[in-house]
Amino acid sequence: MNDHQDGLRHPPPIGVLLTNMGTPEAPTPAALRRYLAEFLWDPRIVEMPRLLWWLILHGRILRTRPRRSAQAYQSIWTERGSPLLVTTLKQGELLQRLLGERLPGPVRVEVAMRYGAPSIGDGLERLRRAGCDRILVLPLYPQYSATTTGSTFDAVTAALTGVRRVPELRFVAGYHDDAGYVRSLANSIREQWERRGTRPDRLLFSFHGIPRKGWLDGDPYPEQCHATARLVARQLGLDDEAWQVAFQSRFGRAEWVTPYTDETLRGWGEQGVAAVDVICPGFAADCLETLEEIGEENRRRFLEAGGRSYHYIPALNTREDHMEALAALARRHMRGWVDAREGD
What we know:
Blueprint lengths: L2 H7 L4 E9 L6 H13 L8 H25 L8 H20 L4 E9 L4 H10 L4 E6 L6 H14 L8 E4 L7 H18 L5 E7 L3 H5 L4 H16 L6 E6 L12 H11 L3 E5 L8 H17 L4 E5 L6 H14 L3 H6 L2
Parallel strand pairs: 1-2, 1-3, 3-4, 5-6, 5-7, 7-8
């Protein structure tokens, strides 16, 4: 048998790099300082002249914020570690199993974080060492933003700089209107309401915010967030008055995309809205921004403002319909690669 025939019988695995934002290694000020130094130095995150930003970052922010952030992380940390990392690793295992069952020939899934460990460079190197000469990069950001998906692309290309043989790459830029993803979101909300036997007065779709300047400069993120919410609301049969989109986690003094989640919830409480559910469709796995900021901090704001009932609906995490949607998404982006195998 010649090498070509052997290659057809035993094709190299198709690689999938499943990425998420990242997490500190521990809920300590020292670990948060390292994590925030990497995260906040990314020019996709803070668009400011580098020298000026370096002085602000190291002169003020990294002197005070790590301690406050460590306290927040301590409130959500589990015996197994960071919820975001634990869940994303499990998502990688489940995606490996689903794709292994449904694709002809081998597939290899690796999990990587944009900031922190396991790094994107390490994930790509593991795929290359496994023989993957075709790699699909799947960032777990349904709505595209330069601050998330764009930054991941930067990290992937930077990690391959200098590599002698660059693998064939495909990149999932987003899936905000993917039917399986939207259906999973609607199912998760509907199940919560059926379990409780009641619906809230308002449903809030809370997405991570971005600076308003980024949106004005062409980032499609806010429009994609609104599109996701509309599609889910339509599946649930909600009237326009029953739901709203808002944006959380703003940082610094610049204006961010509005309305803000905290101000919206406080206003609803003051206006007499009694019962609210909040879901965060932009987060594929629960993390600090969902468990602490939405689950605890904003709950307190709403109740103190006069609200009576507040429920956070968890991220899709490892729901079966979510993993099925991600597997179908990955397979669609592998067309051509998989078709060639099926035709052998």
